[in-house]
Amino acid sequence: MLDDLRNSASQSFLEDFPDDKNRGGDDRGPLLIFGMTAAQRFLVAFLLLILVCTVGTLVLIAFGKVVI
After folding, report:
1. What is the model's pLDDT at position 63?
2. Mean pLDDT to the nearest integer, 55-63
3. Contact 37, 45 (CB under 8 A)
4. Residue 68, CA distances (Å) to 21, 50, 62 in order
């Protein structure tokens, strides 16, 4: 493993990875982050917002800081 460390350090690490087709641009297709489209990322973010608000409200009710 350490035998060829100096030679591997002189090479660029970008050569090890092939070009990704889904990195964006007009001719390469849509930009995918985490393998999701923009609509899917929006839905995950929206559901996470709803979850945080719901759990926060339940915690406030449980500790008696808010009365129904």
Report:
1. 96
2. 96
3. no
4. 53, 19, 11
**Contact in structure between 22 and 32 (CB atoms under 8 Å):** yes
**Amino acid (1-letter code) at residue 16:** D
- Return the amino acid letter for 41: R
Does residue 14 surpass a pLDDT of 80?
A: no
Domain ranges of the chain: 5-62
* Paired tokens of 9: 């350090």
Burial of 32 (0-12, 13-18, 19+ CB in 10 A): middle
Q: Which tokens belong to 25?
A: 């641009």
